[in-house]
Amino acid sequence: DDDDDIPQLSSHALAALQEFYLEQQQREGMKTSQGFNQYSVGSIEEDWQLSQFWYSDETASCLANEAVVAAGKGGRIACVSAPSVYQKLKEQDDKDFSVCILEYDRRFSVYGEEFIFYDYNHPLNLPENVLPHSFDIVIADPPYLSEECLQKTAETIKYLTKGKILLCTGAIMEEQAAKHLGVKICKFIPKHSRNLANEFRCYANYASGLD
Questions:
Q1: Distance from first CA to last CA of the chain, Å, rounded?
Q2: Which GO terms describe its cellular component (predicted)?
Q3: Higher-pLDDT residue of 75, 42
């Protein structure tokens, strides 16, 4: 029989696969039936291979509100590798501010002109229309807990910001964050939708509402 050479899934594996596809279909169905909000946190799922871990809804809201206050009326906000904050900002888009998202993951290009492709390995490789010191606040969450990643992301942050910086990264990066960006640790403890092994903290270089 020619079919003998075709690998067969065990009944258990097949049932698990069918359950996965069913859950996926249900999720897609829910998105459609609920008048799906493309800006809700989690609307684009985490890709762990890209070291993506979304904030909890409460943390994303808190950071977004802080960014709005810090930017001021008519302010410009840049979210560098911090898409869940961007999404929360877009949920309150009736307020007087503008926002851009700088991301390596091209799935976020669904957000149109506000999406800027960004690779931290090339920190100043930005479109010509992204002018230096053109954002009132930059909120950044470097994807990796390494000094190299932080140092390169810091180049981008310093190019973009008029002065204010809000950084989210591991507690172990406190010394490097101070060295490269002059930021100090805040009392506010950010949380993720899935618990991370590393302790995570926020840092700012101005008197923020996160203390």
A1: 71
A2: cytoplasm
A3: 75
